[in-house]
Give the backbone structure.
Amino acid sequence: MNDLNQFCRSFVLAAGLLTGFSMCAAFAQDNPPLKIIVGFPPGGSADILARLVAEKLKDGLDRPVVVDNKPGAAGRIAVDFVKNATDGNTILLAPMGPFVLFPHTFKKLNYNAFSDFVPISLVANFQFAITSGPASNVKSVSEMIAQIKADANRGTYGTAGTGAAPHFIGVMLSDAAGVPMNHVPFQGGAPAVTALLGGHVSYVIDTITESLELHRNGKGRVIAVSGAQRAPQLLDVPTLREQGLNMEASGWFAMFGPAKMGADNVQKISAVVSSVMRQPELRERLLKLGYEAVGSTPEQLATIHRADFARWEKPIKATGFSAD
């Protein structure tokens, strides 16, 4: 009899465990993690942004949120991965480049920036900075223009590579200022800064994120920011427009899903992202990194996407540049 009772207790316990495992499996199936794909390596500014946002999203969505890095091809590997995702739980966090610039610079892309994706939400805006170094030692745009007019060789500007936004901002700047600006591409932002500090180029054009420390430690000087208003991180630096140039440019990070992602899922994620981006703690942390936290509806992101796509077409075509 004791053996029978022990068997019964063991059976009930095992049945309970199996039921618990089944419930957990069902919950995991009904509530799978949201995967945020980032097209850049861990530790970079895009990765840091994604992880800060993911940490906040998991509470609002009441589900796990993970960041998956798929670097390579200037972000295009990640774009292709999300385009082909069919699980309904895979989205992309990307800068504007793959959606605004690349369609103008690549004759052949493996994706259509509009028809292959559904917009979810804007995440963060950022500005670009024009930073002078020892080779120019200028403190304003007017000084820059005067110096280049006196010596055209003083108009060299370094960027993190050909075909990215800073390259074309230099083209726009040259046109607006009426002076020749000669692009010198490097394999990343760090080599460009090294060249600036060594006097090999007169200026560097890059995101504010990459220029803040140079300006703060006095090794370089941000002489202008590219946005419509002064950057909160650099309130002492006037915009290009404030200094008499009829131009402005800014960048953004946004979330997109594959074209067939369900509308209800898109709207839910978008609403939570917009709510998260209003949290003071997150806004403050992103501000220190050079980002302005923003959120949007899918419709608002779609409008911004199309407007910027059209806005960047002229300066890109003016270069005659082709990436392939």
Q: What stands out?
A: The longest helix spans residues 2-30. Residues 61 and 268 are 8 Å apart (CA to CA).
